Amino acid sequence: MERLDKIISEAGLCSRRDCERLARRGLITVNGLIVKNSAEKVADDAIIELDGEPVARRREVVCIMNKPSGFVTSTDDDRNPTVMELLPDEMLRQKVVPAGRLDKDTEGLLVFTNNGELLHKLISPKYEIKKVYYVEHEGDVTDSAIQKAKEGVLLKDGTVCKSAVIERLEEGKSTICIREGMYHQVKRMYAALGLHVNYLKRIRIGNLPLSDLKPSEVRELSEEEINLLFADPA
Ligand code: URA
């Protein structure tokens, strides 16, 4: 059971005070009956309407997208298509935002949520959430590059990165696991190691893999999967 004014204000339709006024005017119904007291508590499955329009309840949502290339990670951009355009209406109604950023030409795992605390934990450097990228590049990863990544790559602007793990897959292909999320970080780290990145895809956050999500596909995470985001990869 929750207060009517709380549900309606959290749905982003009006303030609690406005809700009180609208209720007094008889504009709010619960299961088809007018409710004039906006402080009234209603059942979780009650159907609420405001001025004849159904009120979509806000709930905490965490979802993932397999971001395709060509979309910017932004809620608003005049010149480029944004990842928001790929979200289903229900996720937009729930007011989710991207947790972190992938470059326009980067593909892969992108998390969205409307839970502020979770958002903070995912993007704050303090929590050092591990992110794994699949990288295709010019040149080959050498033992010396792997060692430098482990010790902390010195970027061209003088920034020293936290220790990262690069694994060579084959010539021109590797994975990297980083614990921070600076601007163009992977591309800049590889550039500092003398390797130009041609293709970048995030394939894991914490212990949650992108798995078989198709490009542009979005799906909600279960409680268990949300916990995996914060787990240390084995
Ligand atoms: N590092 C990059 O260089 N680009 C991304 O999109 C993500 C990490």
Please explain how this structure is put together:
By secondary structure, the chain is of the alpha+beta class. The protein has three domains: 2-54, Structural Genomics Hypothetical 15.5 Kd Protein In mrcA-pckA Intergenic Region, Chain A, CATH 3.10.290.10; 62-126 and 208-228, Pseudouridine synthase I, catalytic domain, N-terminal subdomain (Alpha-Beta Plaits), CATH 3.30.70.580; 130-205, 2-Layer Sandwich (Alpha-Beta Plaits). Helices cover 23% and strands 28% of the residues. It has helices at 4-10, 16-24, 89-93, 116-123, 143-151, 185-192, 223-229, and strands at 2-3, 28-30, 33-34, 41-42, 48-50, 53-54, 62-67, 97-99, 107-113, 131-138, 165-170, 173-178, 196-205, 208-209, 218-220. The strands form three sheets. Strands 7, 8, 9, 10, 11, 12, 13, 14 and 15 form a nine-stranded mixed beta sheet that branches. Strand 11 and strand 12 (173-178) form a beta hairpin. It is elongated. 27% of the residues are buried. The mean pLDDT is 94. Uracil binds next to helix 6.
Please count the helical segments: 7
For the largest beta-sheet, the strand count, sense and barrel status come to: 9 strands, mixed
- What is the CATH topology assignment of the largest domain? Alpha-Beta Plaits
Q: How big a fraction of the residues is strand?
A: 25-35%
The residue fraction in helices comes out at: 10-25%
Task: Please report the first level of CATH classification, the CATH class of the largest domain.
Answer: Alpha Beta
> What is the succession of H and E elements?
EHHEEEEEEHEEHEHEEHEEEH
Low-pLDDT stretches are none
